[in-house]
Inverse folding.
């Protein structure tokens, strides 16, 4: 059997602890965070160096055996889902966990794929710098996966997506050769930006093993407030008020629905609402600046006072300490977990131009409520950059499997509206295994044809993350 001799070779190559074959050990790699996919694999490869990743890929390419590259396994769209037929091997990047260098003068960090985003943020902070990428799953999500999906997150409004932070990249290509592009230059116009092609390719073109990330100055003042607002229009008006006051100060501007917040308050321990009463909608605003002039609180309170006076904001609380800041952020970051605990949920990670967010929320809410009476509409997300997680939770007491069986119907209902509003069906989570069926419709024609040619050129045997991002050859 090809697979037996391949596993023998890989076992010799990876050494003790480098190859997991016992089903009890491989099982955690075969289910995704959402529990949408339950696969099987003969083995999980755990290389501990770029050279070892390259050797694994070369051996698999030669044997024609497919690989699923995997980081923290936190994808919302089955980006690292393992197929059910047991034909593919998992390649885990977790043991590539070194921070190779941090340079506080150049403000760069050279870091391996398996470092968690949280560990990377902490290391940057310890060196007096800020790694400005922040996502709810940062405690488990690993740099390789974060870059492979071009993660967005809470600070995109100010610093851009992961892509904007990548100066250099090291990756193992589908034939086992190593792309050694760990340059740390702000300016480098030397041919195709291969690193940018790999960022966002969801492991289908190469396996990211390390990267050079751009750091920023640490803020010297940070302010966080939670506001209750009457409507999404009021939330957008508040965003514009902060932008008018000082656009450079906005670090995050997050929207949450009353329904979503109530789920967090009920289902997550120690997540109480710090306002006197619940509001129909909420905004979390974080301001930050590297200036040291003590004026940021005045800026925040000035904008809030005016909005409270005109009724744009119904109620607001400003964090008085780091602990309170974390408590407010917890209300936002636990939205996914609360929705998971509430039963089946269907996610729509969509984006529209910021000006159209209120219309998106109004129209998609009516459409979903008409489609499934009793459905719990719980949108939240990054209002400041137009990315709303238009999530739907099953009606209370409904049959979970029956609700989830209607996921395409629900996603298509929301996406039809997103399309009319000139948005995207996947703003930051990627396409993964869940959404390739949407690609012909949204990215068909020349765009999809070019993507297929790129895949064919860089991975002619189709061994990397098969079935993700691109639809079957027969589609589109
Ligand atoms: C977030 O913004 C993540 O918290 C997860 O992107 C969103 O659960 C989701 O849909
Ligand atoms: Zn998000």
């Amino acid at each position: 059997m090809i697979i037996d001799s391949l596993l023998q070779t890989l076992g010799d190559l990876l050494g003790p602890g480098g190859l997991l074959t016992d089903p009890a050990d491989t099982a955690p790699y075969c289910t995704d965070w959402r529990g949408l996919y339950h696969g099987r694999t003969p083995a999980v490869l755990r290389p501990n160096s770029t050279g070892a990743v390259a050797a694994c890929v070369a051996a698999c390419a030669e044997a024609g055996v497919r690989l699923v590259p995997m980081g923290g396994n936190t994808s919302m769209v089955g980006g690292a889902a393992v197929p059910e037929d047991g034909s593919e091997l998992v390649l885990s990047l977790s043991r590539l966990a070194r921070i190779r260098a941090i340079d506080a003068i150049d403000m760069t960090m050279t870091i391996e794929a398996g470092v968690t985003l949280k560990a990377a943020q902490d290391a940057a902070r310890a060196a007096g710098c800020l790694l400005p990428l922040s996502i709810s799953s940062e405690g488990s999500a690993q740099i390789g996966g974060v870059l492979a999906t071009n993660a967005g997150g809470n600070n995109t409004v100010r610093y851009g997506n992961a892509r904007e932070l990548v100066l250099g990249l090291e990756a193992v290509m589908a034939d086992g050769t190593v792309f050694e592009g760990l340059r740390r230059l702000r300016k480098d116009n030397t041919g195709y930006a291969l690193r940018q092609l790999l960022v966002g390719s969801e492991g289908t073109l190469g396996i990211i093993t390390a990267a050079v990330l751009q750091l920023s100055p640490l803020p010297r003042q940070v302010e966080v407030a939670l506001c209750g607002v009457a409507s999404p229009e009021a939330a957008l008006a508040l965003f514009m008020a902060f932008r008018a006051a000082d656009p450079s100060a906005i670090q995050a501007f997050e929207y949450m629905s009353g329904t979503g917040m109530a789920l967090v308050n009920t289902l997550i321990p120690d997540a109480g609402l710090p306002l006197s009463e619940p509001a129909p909608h909420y905004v979390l605003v974080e301001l930050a600046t590297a200036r040291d002039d003590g004026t940021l609180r005045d800026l925040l309170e000035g904008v809030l006072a005016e909005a409270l006076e005109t009724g744009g904001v119904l109620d607001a609380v400003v964090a008085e300490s780091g602990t309170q800041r974390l408590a407010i952020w917890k209300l936002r970051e636990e939205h996914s977990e609360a929705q998971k605990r509430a039963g089946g949920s269907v996610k729509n990670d969509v984006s529209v131009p910021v000006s159209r967010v209120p219309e998106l929320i109004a129209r998609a809410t009516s459409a979903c409520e008409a489609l499934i009476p009793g459905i719990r509409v719980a949108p939240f997300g990054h209002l400041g950059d137009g990315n709303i997680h238009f999530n739907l939770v099953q009606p209370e007491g409904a049959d979970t499997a029956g609700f989830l069986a209607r996921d395409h119907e629900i996603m298509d209902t929301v996406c039809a509206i997103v399309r009319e509003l000139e948005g995207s069906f996947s703003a930051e989570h990627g396409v993964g295994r869940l959404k390739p069926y949407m690609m012909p419709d949204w990215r068909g024609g020349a765009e999809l044809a070019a993507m297929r040619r790129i895949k064919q050129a860089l991975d002619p045997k189709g061994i990397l993350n098969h079935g993700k991002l691109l639809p079957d050859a027969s589609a589109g």
Remarks:
- The chain has a mean pLDDT of 97.
